[in-house]
Amino acid sequence: xxxxxxxxxxxxxxxxxxxxxxTTFYAIQAEKIGFEYxxxxxxxxxxxxxxxxxxxxxYTERIKFGPGVTNPYLVHPGVTAQAVAxxxxxxxxRVVCGLGAGxxxxxxxxxxxxxxxxxxxxxxxxxxxxxxxxxxxxxxGKIFNVAGAKxxxxxxxxxxxxxxxxxxKMLELAGEIGDGVLINASHPKDVENAMTFIxxxxxxxxxxxxxxxxxxxxxxxxxxxxxKASKAVVPVVAYIxxxxxxxxxxxxxxxxxxxxKIREAIVHRRWKEAFSPVNTEMxxxxxxxxxxxxxxxxxxxxxxxxxxxIxxxxxxxPNMRKSINMIAAEVFxxxxxxxxxxxx
Amino acid sequence: xALERIARKIPASLWNVASxxxxxxxxxxxxxxxxxxxxxxxxxxYWQRDQLATEIGLYRILEASMILEPEKTISxxxxxxxxxxxxxxxxxx
Lengths: 344, 93
Description:
The structure holds two protein chains of two kinds.
Chain A: E1 4-5, E2 9-14, H1 20-33, E3 37-40, H2 49-58, E4 64-67, H3 77-90, E5 97-99, H4 104-109, H5 117-132, E6 137-140, E7 145-149, E8 161-165, H6 168-177, E9 180-183, H7 188-205, E10 213-222, H8 226-243, H9 246-251, H10 256-267, H11 271-275, H12 280-286, E11 288-290, H13 292-305, E12 309-316, H14 320-331, E13 342-343
Parallel strand pairs in A: 2-3, 2-12, 3-4, 5-8, 8-9, 9-10, 10-11, 10-12
Antiparallel strand pairs in A: 1-13, 6-7
Helix pairs in contact in A: 1-14, 2-3, 3-5, 5-6, 6-7, 7-13, 8-10, 8-12, 13-14
Chain B: H1 2-8, H2 15-27, H3 37-48, H4 55-68, H5 70-79, H6 83-92
Helix pairs in contact in B: 1-4, 1-6, 2-4, 2-5, 3-4, 4-5, 5-6
């Protein structure tokens, strides 16, 4: 891959478990301190992603925002196209669409199966892109058939589609058809590995690396001490360990039986049993966690691995407001100098 | 209206610190669901415009904290050395 230059961007993820006004308060704060992207997760059992985004968009002026990520099993891509197009009317040019195969545990609660994820995502991107382009869409797919779908309103600009990916084939697909990739990873080893597959997709599509916004979608926790940050991130790491494929667990020398035990405990809501096996190695493998100084170092390593957006995902820290302020005061200033660094 | 009058009596030199501490009280309150939606939207309006540490912004955030955490709000005013405010807030309960 040839050498190119890049600019670092930062995104922040909120899980709308909180009351709408709290999420919006933090969204305003995130915009004020200079985050470029706001991602809100989409799980049926939390508050609705598009309602949350619509409110956040009304109280912000610059930050780009979108579902991070929605999935085509729960929401038909035609409806996703309609939702992001409507948001784009509220905040023209600021909307992005994060799309992935969804969270298996949450989908299972609604008896939804993640069938043929690669084909489903490929066709979903075609539908969302087709409909939001304003054209009448005809498509005979293996998963979806679309017969003359067209919005009854105009959309002023294309909406970039970011694909959430972790496995090799999904990463390759994301490189091939996405406008951006949201790599589910916090560790440079995982990002380096992901870049190989994304690169294959880019080549397949005849694109350039710079055509793509490549983001590390991390689990992030910053606090005044490692212990405080770690305590906040443990539950999130437990979920990540429980949901990670064996190949990724092996990469981080985590035994599959430990992951299975955590998964089993989560399913049965035995939280102490789920969280107590999470050790420092797991926290290091699956999160950016620690003091601002530690987080800065970890972010540098991810940037060197090839990403150009860092998404600070849940939990952000033990105290959301303080942690966001800490990012502003002690993390962001270190990355001005990164602008122009070589990405190979 | 009573709270608006009380908020006006907070010295301008304390607006920043009072606002910061009241915001923390409100955001971290276990009673956050008691926040009236209209008041929440008003606070977001002032937050977006950096006006939570002004007379009007402070009044709204004080109103919220008195709904969510009245006792902690009164303790905070004591900590800030505002006994007259403490008396007035107690009278609103």
